[in-house]
Amino acid sequence: MTTASMNPPRATSLDPSDWSQLRAQGHRMLDDMFDHLAGLRDRPVWQPIPETVRGAFREPMPAEPTTVAEAHGRFMRDVLPYSVGNTHPRFMGWVHGGGTAEGMLAEMLAAGLNANLGGRDQMPLEMEKQVVRWMADLFGFPETAGGLFVTGSSMANLVGLLVARTSALGGQSRKTGVENAGGGRLVAYTSQAAHGCIAQAMSIAGLGTDALRLVPTDADHRTDIVQLRAMVWQDMAAGLRPFLIAGTAGTVDVGAVDDLDAIADVARTCGAWFHVDGAYGALGMLSRQVAPRLAGIERADSLALDFHKWGQVPYDAGFILVRDQADQLAAFASPAAYLSRHPRGLAAGSPWPCDLGPDLSRGFRALKTWFTLVTHGTNRLGAAIDNSCDLARHLMARVLAEPELELMAPVALNIVCFRLRAAPSQDADALNTEVVADLHESGIAVPSSTRIRGQVAIRAAIVNHRTVAGDIDMLVDAVLACGRRRQRIQNTTVQPVQEFAA
Ligand SMILES: *Cc1c(COP(=O)(O)O)cnc(C)c1O
User: Fold this and answer.
1) 42 and 150: one domain?
2) What pLDDT does residue 339 have?
3) Strands (E) located in 183-300
4) C-beta 152 within 6 A of ligand 1
5) Which residue, judged by its Cα, is nearest atom 7 of ligand 1?
6) Is the CB of 252 inside a 6 Å radius of any atom of ligand 1?
7) Distance CA 457, CA 455 (A)
8) N or C terminus: fewer CB in 10 A for the chain?
9) DSSP 276
10) What is the domain extent for residue 356?
11) What is the pLDDT of residue 493?
12) CB atoms < 10 A from the CB of 95, how many?
């Protein structure tokens, strides 16, 4: 058989046969998202997903193509209206960023470029390195600092903890395992108000959550330094090895910032690694009113933060900054691989991100972050952070002025925890839990509920750059209206509030 008689290979390129048609569709998609972002305020923050919509996504995997127009139509109809709503100015449920149109556009560029940021000699990596240097400068870290984009602060805290672990046990422990490293059992410290991902990191690292001491908090929900010191000394006297103290800059529940300088002092005296979980609070460094609260952050051995929260970069954009990149290399690099790379060609530019963390293939998270920083500038981003703290104080003032409401925790930054006072015959925890669900279903505003010292509170985390004072007033008015409605018709089933007031 000759080659000529064989079927020629089929073209399998996934590029469109008609670029102009796809281009036109792409413009419509972009227009739809601009319209969506420009019209957020007129939409409900959140709405329940109809069962028909949920059910429509149970069809089998398609063997044959659907047009882009049809796929886009399904996104617009079935997905876009039923997401969490964190782009909306009255989303205050959790510490989620609002994103920006510029960030969205940068994501499109990054996807088109399809760069793999695991390594090699490419400008996208220079961009990531620039963001690393910017962060090192912002937080007063030395020239030796290393940094890495990861998914979020859960991963950033894990990476920080793994670097601290290897620093304590020595590089050999990567081969022998934690069990056989010797030198005493490792113990770590963080406050009772710390994010759950610190405990999770201890578990993943093979050190166990039993080895994480949860230090009680003071009246301001900050790590109690006297107790921290006592716990450290007690463990040392018992022959244990304190290897890590993790402070928090902005706790998820109430936005408390630990006394980072005092924690740094304790860490120094016991020889422990000082890590800061600055997931959302660290970028407060850009804000005039928050920056002074972060004093001591410059002494951290590692710092976890998210650009996707107060930094307003679209999800996901977590980041870990390490005081000395050599510690990061010691924990993650395979020396055989990175030392043998060629100094020229695509193999140049070592060390690479894959030497500094657990990921090999990685997307171009640096681009949307760089775009957000460059197109808005740090002053404007800092002003948005200032604004959310101002709004939190406005909310606090309204809560204090309303006899039906009570403040549940001090307002440190941008999170306000409050609740409706219940009639003596009524269960305040149940009332406030139901009112939060009523608000969600009303679409007017989305706070969340949390427990503050055992009691249910309504929590408003103001993170979105789009939020204005009128949105705070709408939240308070809606809480009062829902509360009065529930108090009036207690013991009867309350229908969800249906109307959405724009
Ligand atoms: C959000 C948050 C985390 C978790 O970060 P992700 O980006 O969601 O993984 C950890 N710690 C604190 C204090 C947070 O606010």
Assistant:
1) no
2) 78
3) 186-191, 212-215, 241-248, 273-277
4) yes
5) 152
6) yes
7) 6
8) N
9) E
10) 116-363
11) 53
12) 26
Nearest atom of ligand 1 to the alpha carbon of 154? 9
All residue ranges of the chain with pLDDT < 70 are 1-5, 490-502
Angle at 125 (CA atoms; ends 123, 128), nearest 5 degrees: 120
Decide if 11 is inside a domain.
no
Tell me, in angstroms, the distance from the centre of ligand 1 to residue 244's CA.
Answer: 18
Q: Compute the distance from residue 442 Cα to the ligand 1 centre, in Å.
A: 28
Cβ neighbour number for residue 403 with a 10 Å cutoff: 7
Phi, psi of 231 (to 5 degrees): -65, -40
Confidence (pLDDT) at 502: 36
User: Is the beta carbon of 277 within 6 A of some atom in ligand 1?
Assistant: yes
pLDDT for residue 336: 80
Nearest to 244 by CA among 169, 161, 126, 331: 161
pLDDT reported for residue 495: 54
Q: Name beta bridge partners: 188.
A: 212, 244
Q: Locate the DSSP E strands across 216-297.
A: 241-248, 273-277
Q: Which residues contact 199 (CB under 8 A, 6 or more apart)?
A: 209, 212
CA atoms of 339 and 291, how far apart (whole Å): 39
What is the reported pLDDT for 494? 52
- 86 in contact with ligand 1, CB cutoff 6 A: no
pTM above 0.70, yes or no: yes
Residues 6+ apart with CB under 8 A from 208: 202
Per-residue confidence (pLDDT) for residue 499, from 0 to 100: 46
154 lines ligand 1 (CB under 6 A): yes
Cβ(318) – ligand 1 distance below 6 Å:
yes
Q: Is the CB of 253 under 6 A from ligand 1?
A: no
Q: Which atom of ligand 1 is nearest to the CA of 252?
A: 15
Alpha carbon of 36 to ligand 1 centroid (Å)? 27
Residues in the chain: 502
With CA atoms as reference, report the closest residue to 280 among 156, 153, 396, 392.
Answer: 153
**For the segment 194-243, what is each residue's pLDDT rounded down to a tens digit?**
999 999 999 999 999 999 999 999 999 999 999 999 999 999 999 999 99
Quick check: CB of 197 below 6 Å from ligand 1?
A: yes
Residue 66 lies in a domain: no
Number of compact structural domains in the chain = 2
Is the same domain home to 415 and 347? no
Q: Supply the CATH number for residue 31's domain.
A: 3.90.1150.170
Mutate to test the pocket of ligand 1, among 251, 276, 277 (most ligand atoms within 8 A of CB): 277
Q: How far is the CA of 191 from the centre of ligand 1 (A)?
A: 15
